[in-house]
Specification:
The protein has about 425 residues and is of the alpha+beta class. It has 13 helices and 14 strands. Strand 3 and strand 4 form a beta hairpin. The structure holds calcium ion (3 copies).
């Protein structure tokens, strides 16, 4: 078991102890975070903290606790000044921040070695307690380092712009490169939806470089680190993504997996929860088609056509439109595979079953051009031109809410596939 893991057990015990009310000071400090994403990974977190109680910087000097500055931008300088005046009085700092209302969790003030130099830094997650901000509490994550006997801000997550609703997630070697990283999140809420952004920062190298390219964001997310692919190194997983508004359209939750590529955390996989909406069967078929996975696309288009148990979003007329689109796409996909007989059968099925649908005209344009020119690319260009002058062609997939993709004439027959 790694040192960090041992230490994480200490803090878990500490938090559990406070939650059971056995320690008055800690239970008072463990204030509930006013975060709408409070479920899940918010607290407790696996953070090595034992140094907080085992390492003493020096003999503190008793100085008066500073009053809360009016401007949140002055919190950090005031904290640094207090630490220098008091010669590093951590208990006094905790009392100060609690008196300000700036600490939401007992684990929001830690002594932990984030830069791997063998000495603990002070890690603070603070918020502006102004009730004006509510769930969008303005805050910061600070690393205060001490060199030459003086404290200074080694890292500020907020920088010039306050970090909304900050939550510390991890202090650990997350990517297995032998150096410690910090992971934290920030959540901001609009009228309908809260978005959480997760940041990973290389702290053990001392550079405090952000490793996710500006943050990994998702709506209503439950973020955490877990070994997704079984290689022994944890990935960043964001699960959620649904938006709290009817206008958003039909939705399905998804898991986004951010993996370490040796330089940064990059999105390596996006996996949707199963959904019984016909619309999503079409989207999955379209994705398979665009990926050149024609066999999968055929299976999915066929399901969309043949399975009456798939749900429509608003009205039954969607089924008519989406089935016609699927029959057209089935014919196109078989053509892409060079399976002309099956392609013709799909075309004939559409012409026979839904002769009045716009996609009966589109499949006719496709085939007329294909047989005349012998080029699927040219046929696709003709379809694109036709779709550009017939809005019904794109309306079938364009009206599923703002959480879902648009659909353009160029997407009716993706010419660049051929
Ligand atoms: Ca250190
Ligand atoms: Ca690392
Ligand atoms: Ca892994």
């Amino acid at each position: 078991m790694s040192n960090a893991r041992v230490l994480s057990l200490v803090v878990l015990s500490l938090v559990a102890f406070s939650l059971f009310g056995c320690n008055e000071d800690l239970s008072q400090a463990a204030l509930p975070a006013p975060s709408p994403t409070g479920a899940g990974f918010v607290s407790p977190v696996p953070i090595p903290t034992a140094e907080r109680t085992t390492v003493s910087i020096s003999s503190p000097t008793v100085v008066p606790l500073p009053p809360r500055p009016d401007d949140f931008g002055n919190y950090a300088p005031t904290i640094v000044e207090y630490l220098n005046d008091s010669k590093g009085d951590e208990d006094g700092l905790r009392a100060t921040l609690e008196s300000w209302g700036a600490l939401r969790q007992v684990t929001d003030l830690l002594r932990v070695d984030v830069d791997d130099d063998g000495t603990g830094e002070l890690l603070l997650v603070i918020v502006d307690p102004s009730p004006d901000y509510g769930i969008n509490a303005r805050g910061d994550l600070l690393i205060l380092d001490r060199e030459g006997g003086r404290f200074s801000v080694a890292y500020s997550a907020a920088g010039d712009t306050p970090l909304l609703d900050p939550v510390l997630m991890e202090v650990d070697d997350l990517n297995g490169n032998g150096h410690t990283e910090l992971a934290y999140s920030s959540t901001s809420c609009g009228a309908h939806t809260c978005f959480t952004t997760v940041y990973v920062v290389a702290s053990g190298t001392g550079t405090y470089e952000e490793l996710t390219g500006g943050g990994a964001e998702m709506a209503y997310v439950d973020p955490g680190f877990r070994d997704w692919d079984g290689d022994g190194i944890r990935e960043l997983l964001l699960y959620g993504g649904t938006i709290g508004s009817v206008g958003a359209g039909p939705q399905r939750a998804r898991t986004e997996v951010y993996g370490w590529d040796g330089v940064a955390y990059v999105l390596v996989e996006s996996v949707y929860d199963p959904s019984n909406f016909l619309y999503f069967r079409i989207l999955d078929a379209n994705s398979a088609f665009l990926a050149g996975e024609y066999d999968s696309a055929i299976v999915l288009y066929r399901e969309a056509i043949d399975d009456p148990g798939l749900d429509v979003w608003m009205q039954e007329s969607e089924r008519e439109e989406l089935v016609a689109f699927s029959r057209y796409r089935l014919s196109l996909t078989y053509l892409a595979l060079g399976q002309v007989d099956q392609a013709r059968a799909a075309r004939d099925e559409l012409l026979a079953e839904q002769p009045d649908n716009i996609y009966a005209q589109i499949v006719a344009v496709l085939w007329d051009t294909y047989l005349r020119e012998g080029s699927l690319r040219t046929a696709c260009e003709e379809v694109t031109a036709f779709a550009g002058s017939h809005p019904q062609a794109t309306e079938v997939l364009a009206d599923y809410g703002y959480a879902n993709p648009t659909f353009t004439p160029e997407e009716v027959c993706p010419t660049n596939m051929f």
